[in-house]
Write a structure and sequence with these properties.
The structure holds two protein chains of two kinds. Chain A is α+β, with helices and mostly antiparallel strands. Chain A has two helices and three strands. Chain B is built from ten helices and no strands. The chains are: A alpha+beta, B mainly alpha.
């Protein structure tokens, strides 16, 4: 039975104002049960305020072989980093 | 008055404790990892409720008892849980049917206790009702999935329901303790939640294409008064063996 259940990726938002983060995956027959299962498997220790589940097959991933052309050009371009702006202490969650 | 309150707390505490122990037996043996964790989460929620209720009962007893001595050093005749929760796990359908009937009752019972004149009991109910609402949502969902699932899953679930159904009646039968607690505004009349319970169960069964067992028939009872089936002593033997062999042992 387990072999027929599709795989789902689980995203949890830990608090308001933050983005959902990928926390892992699980098996479930449909979206409703995937949500229930995600609640039971990934939010047992008060981790979240919101859950997203996405079928793993619906995610399009970049190919590892394309790494060089996709990411290497961004190396050593320090002027793209906003490091010259001091951030106020009060701004949290960045 | 204080004796009745003690008895009353034991009933709710023991229901949670014994069902928690039963569900814990599934740990590591669930039909899927996700189900296994979900079921043990429910078990842990119930254990938390049992601890609060038995601590309060121990306080009411005022004889030096605590939650642990109540859990580990009472014999089966001193337990006040309903017969429903001590029934063996059977297969997954049996466990689910038992859980659904209990959750549907528990969520109504706890809602009644929210307005208890006893502040400590109302506070426990407030914490527990959120947990049980989720348990009920989960067990109702599984009832519909398996009832309205394959021919085999419906047949298994229907057999499980027919087997466990007689034990649901005890939940709604009051006695002198219930009457005293109701009169004091602490508790509620068990019979008064029956119609709402049945209406909910009927609704879920209809969606799950399951047949409601006929009214009447065999109605085993006595758990609330300490008269249990042999299943409870076996459960207690396993649950209590460590504390009985090594009293006071701790981590």
């Amino acid at each position: 039975m387990k072999n027929q259940w599709p795989l789902w990726e689980v995203f949890i938002r830990s608090q308001h104002g933050l983005a959902h983060r990928h926390v892992g995956s699980l098996h479930a027959p449909d979206a409703t049960m995937a949500l229930n299962n995600a609640r039971d498997v990934y939010t047992r220790r008060n981790e979240g305020v919101s859950i997203w589940v996405v079928k793993s097959t619906d995610i399009t991933a970049s190919h590892p072989d394309d790494k060089a052309e996709l990411f290497d050009p961004a190396n050593s371009k320090v002027y793209r980093h906003p490091t010259f702006f001091p951030m106020p202490e009060e701004v949290k969650g960045l | 008055m204080s004796t009745a309150r003690y008895e009353y707390l034991l009933r709710f505490g023991d229901n949670a404790l014994i069902l928690s122990q039963r569900l814990g037996e599934w740990c590591g043996k669930g039909p899927a990892l996700e189900e296994d964790m979900a079921l043990t989460n429910v078990a842990l929620d119930l254990l938390g409720q049992a601890r609060l209720l038995l601590s309060l009962a121990a306080e009411a007893a005022g004889n030096g008892a605590d939650e642990d001595s109540l859990a580990y050093h009472r014999d089966d005749r001193a337990f006040r849980n309903v017969l429903l929760v001590e029934q063996p796990n059977g297969n997954y359908a049996d466990t689910l049917a038992r859980q659904f009937l209990f959750d549907a009752w528990s969520s109504l019972a706890l809602r009644r206790l929210l307005s208890s004149s006893d502040a400590a009991i109302a506070a426990i109910a407030e914490k527990a009702v959120k947990e049980v609402s989720y348990h009920l949502r989960r067990s109702s969902d599984l009832m519909v999935r398996l009832g309205d699932g394959t021919e085999r899953s419906r047949a298994m679930l229907q057999t499980a329901i027919d087997k466990v159904w007689p034990y649901s009646h005890e939940l709604f039968i009051g006695d002198a303790v219930d009457a005293e607690m109701t009169a004091a505004g602490i508790g509620f009349d068990p019979a008064s939640v029956h119609d709402e319970w049945l209406a909910y169960v009927r609704e879920v069964f209809a969606e799950a294409t399951l047949k409601l067992p006929a009214a009447g028939g065999w109605m085993p009872k006595g758990g609330k008064q300490g008269l249990h089936s042999e299943h409870l002593s076996k459960l207690l033997a396993e649950m209590q063996v460590l504390q009985r062999s090594h009293p006071g042992a701790s981590w």
